[in-house]
Design brief:
This protein is α+β, with helices and mostly antiparallel strands and 45 residues long. It has two helices and two strands, in the order αββα.
Amino acid sequence: INAVNALHGRFFSGRTVIGNYIPTQSYHKLFPESASTTTQLKSSF
């Protein structure tokens, strides 16, 4: 949520960044392998 709020409306390379939320079911349709993933990502900080 914070990432979308922080990035939405900013400019990058002369273009406006548009941040949107996507429902979990829609995300899994776009990236089917994510539905069965059990390994969590590690933070870089």
